[in-house]
Specification:
alpha+beta, two-stranded antiparallel ribbon
Length: 124
């Protein structure tokens, strides 16, 4: 795959509520077992920084099962995790385009593709 076409996933975790919609949509797409994940929401915190100042973040992280929904993108659709994210914090696209957005905010993380093809076959 050409470097300028390499796909990535940009997460704006400042607004992730930890609803797990991304996990559920991916689990259903691949019919994954309860202990298998395509994307997993990690919970960090809570940490208290002062009397009334807390840090508590949720960060969706693609696993090696995630193929960035390449088949859906090829069909003109968006990845299921992005489609079902209730806070609109997930964006999948070319790494170069997503990297250009990294300087716009403080709590962003960019993931590269983890695999060429998913370990599982999508059922839809």
């Amino acid at each position: 795959m050409a470097e300028d076409k390499k796909m990535g996933m940009l997460i704006d975790y400042e607004y992730c509520t930890g609803c797990h919609s991304c996990e559920v949509s991916c689990k259903q797409r691949f019919d994954l077992d309860s202990d298998d994940w395509g994307i997993k929401v990690a919970e960090l915190g809570p940490w208290q920084h002062g009397e009334a100042d807390f840090e508590w973040d949720y960060i969706p992280m693609p696993t090696e099962t995630c193929d960035m929904c390449k088949d859906r993108i090829a069909a003109g659709k968006i990845p299921l995790c992005q489609q079902h994210c209730q806070s609109f914090v997930i964006e999948v696209g070319p790494v170069a385009e997503l990297a250009a957005k990294m300087s716009s905010k403080k709590k962003l993380v960019l993931y590269n593709e983890t695999c060429e093809a998913s370990r599982k076959k999508a059922i839809f």
